[in-house]
Specification:
Elements lengths: L12 E5 L6 H9 L8 E5 L6 H6 L3 E4 L3
Parallel strand pairs: 1-2, 1-3
C-alpha cells in the first residue's frame, strides 16, 4: 500500500503502534528490510510504551494496528 501510494520509506522514521502478531510485528519486520518500499527506521510501540505521544510526534510515518 505504501509503495502504491508513492510514500518514500527509505530512511524514514516509522512508528508502529500495536505489536500484534497479525499486523504490528509483520509490518515492522517488512519495513526494516533493505528493499524498495522499506529500509526504514522502525519503532514498535505497545500498551506499556512510556510517553507514546513523544514517539508518535517524531514519526515521519505512523502506522496503527486496529483491533
Amino acid at each position: 500500500m505504501l509503495i502504491r501510494s508513492g510514500v518514500n520509506t527509505d530512511g524514514a522514521e516509522v512508528v508502529v503502534v500495536g505489536r500484534s502478531n497479525i499486523v504490528g510485528k509483520p509490518i515492522a519486520i517488512m519495513l526494516l528490510q533493505k528493499n524498495k518500499g522499506a529500509n526504514a527506521t522502525v519503532t514498535l510501540c505497545h500498551t506499556h510504551t512510556r510517553d507514546l505521544a513523544f514517539h508518535t510526534r517524531r514519526a515521519d510515518i505512523l502506522i496503527r494496528s486496529c483491533r
